[in-house]
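Margin note from the TA: students keep mixing up input and output lines. Inputs are the sequences; the output is the structure of the whole complex. Example:
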Amino acid sequence: MTRLWKKPGMRPSCKRAAAMVLGLCSMGMFFLPQMTFVFRDIRYVASGWELVFAKGFWFGDAQEGSLIAVPLLLRLAVLGGMLCAAAGTVGLWCCRPSFSGIAYLLSGISPLVSLVAAASLQSTAAQLHIHEMSVEYRLPFMCVLAAGVVCAVLALWTQGVEALAQAVFLTASCVSIGAVLLLTVYLFAAGVPAIAQIGFFRFLFGTQWDAGQGKFGIFPLLLATLSATAGAVLVGVPVGVLTAVFLREMAGERVAKWMRPAVELLAGIPSVVYGFFGMLVVVPAIRGMFGQASIGDSLLAAIVILSIMVIPTIVNVTEQSLGAVPKAWRQASLGLGATPVQTVFRVTIPAARRGILSGVILGVGRAVGETMAVIMVAGNVAEFPRLLGSVRFLTTGIAMEMSYASGLHRQALFSIGLILFLFLMAVNLSFTMLAKRGAGHGR
Amino acid sequence: MADKTLYQKKIRLGDGLLKGSIYAAAALTFTVLLGLMGYLLVRGLPHISWGFLSHTYSETDPQQNGILPMLLNTLYVVGITVLIAGPVGIASAVYLTQYAKQGRFVAIVRFAAEVLSGIPSILFGLFGYTVFCQLLRLGTSLLAGCLTMALCVLPTLIRTTEEALLSVPRLYTQGAMALGAGKLRVILGILLPNAMPGILTALVLTMGRIVGESAALLFTAGMSYGMPRGVFSHAMESGRTLTLHLYQTAREAATPDAMNVAFGTAAVLLILIFLLNRIAWLLGKVLKKGES
């Protein structure tokens, strides 16, 4: 029974009451033991209250020992979580459900932040040579997380199902954008320090990559990536475009009906499978062909595999844009006496050139970012690229060394990641701009 | 030249060359395609047997050369990733098409999705390794791999779902609204059911991508090949998927027997991808039938 004389948002409901009670509980968790810090045989059980106001953890005996301070982020996260829960409850009291929904959600996120902060505490401990430190999380800690989310849902629900649904959908898209922002920020934050330490030009144009001697010049890797991409484009684009022309203009419908799914399948084959094929077929073929000159694992093998990998992408995109060329243009050309081949090369392909170009750029993106296929065929020696010599790419450089790298070496790998990211951003942006210009013309 | 008749065709050398090159390119593409598939299937299919699919694997014991743990790991990664990325992706797409004002916000999200879909998976692996494995203390585990993969597939999933939602005729939703249905009811009752074949196609294509992914899982999900010890606890354990198994066995194979494991794995992967591709194609056909 709805009482009509009251505004729906103001109605005292059980959802609102439950949210407020749960919010109070979540605040109460602040005073219960949340984390256990274990230093060798000493166990500190810390409540939220202690985490915020204690100086730190005394490690060692009374005379000698060191104080490990609680990280500021951890203090802020715990305190902020409590305050957000409080703000949410007050907000509900004052009938501001959307405000309290956000506040509750933030209080639910705060344990995740403390999780990250506690990890930084561990690395501080490692600097003091205390390696046996670990952090355990108690039940109240988890409760804050769960209570925050449940409270947020209840608080938003008091406004009705529609508002709740909208909030859920909005949160989902915020998560998606948040992920991108986080990734970008993270790549910069992780990549810039090493570049700054090594020096931008020495990093980018340094000719030697030798982690053991502390030499971090990625110029050979960069050149290898560029030359392999260029090679793949030089081989893959003509073959791909001409295959698309064949499928769209020359092949009968019956042939094309079989070939189109085949090309799509080729686009979906895992890169490791391509690498495997290259390792077993392409590499021995190169070894056989050049004998003494090459061991087979070479830039040439990588180019062959990358060409095979970019062809499906280029065929698919080109075929679509060829299909978008108006039929009347072709008919007009044929009517003027041009042969079918002349029509294809003078009318259809020029008209579809923007689409073809975007296909090429997609192919470039794929070739630059490819890791697992080329790692299996390129030999992975960080030298200046020769066609028949073994090479290492930017991507394979990361994949090869990530498992054991530490310190500056590891940071340098993140810097390689940043360079890759920036390069692909540039490629992508040009793609978007081309697409926009193409749309402006209106085919 | 006087005796040339109207019926005699002029020989156009350039035309012939270009036409020849078109046929040559097409022939090359399909030779490579058939060669690749044929080679791997011919060498791989004989090694696929019930024993191969249902036995455990060990690097030290050549007798244990099955791929059951890798199959299960792949299933885990595909399942958990779709469970994470599916709802988030579909909900984002619903928000973008139904709620958001078509202005700045949508443009930013589109741009972000565009950027994210161009990033190579090795960078996702790098990110997932530091954030999920180290900062969030998941360790090298399937769950960390799944979270990384979820980030990896989200942009494409959002874009394809958006397309599926936009292809639902506006008359349907407007009709429902005119009958007094609320926005949520329109979305759940009209929009999503009508867009379902498109959304399912997007999900199946996503699964194909997850099955084929390797670089993003290299550091995050790890390389162990043990059998799952518990249904739920396995998500927190490290495990290699089929692609990583192929990578590892191919690189370290010293004997022909070890290479046979790699061939069998490659054939299983090809069959899986083929099946997923077919399912997506069938769904696409259902979609077209619905339109007409």
